[in-house]
TrEMBL record:
This is Nuclear transport factor 2 family protein. SUPFAM superfamilies: NTF2-like. It comes from the Bacteria. Residues 25-113 form the SnoaL-like domain. It comes from Amycolatopsis pigmentata.
Amino acid sequence: MVEPAETVLDRYIGLSDRAVRESSALAELLGLFASDATVLIGPEPAHGKEAVTTFYRAHFAGIVESKHYWNTTVLEDGTVRAEWVCAARTTGNGLITVAGVEHATVDSDGLIQDLRNEFTRPPA
């Protein structure tokens, strides 16, 4: 059996669990985005390196630890799709579960140009 090649979306999701506690992993995760990338995970899109950085710093600030599981597919148009689930502990020692489907378009340098998420189980 041949293992599928790791995509940039696989690296992004894998790094997100470490990025909540390791600044080097957050820097590596942010390096996966093109300078003019757009991220639509929250209610408002973050566009450009500064806005994307601000979004992820705020997003990870409320989480102490997390664990993601996901399945990735590269669609015919080149879009990378990941169906994912996550369990996390928040800074207030709360527990959350969340799930969704992310779609990423990748530029010619292999960086994420556009990332959008649709929650199938929104954070409570």
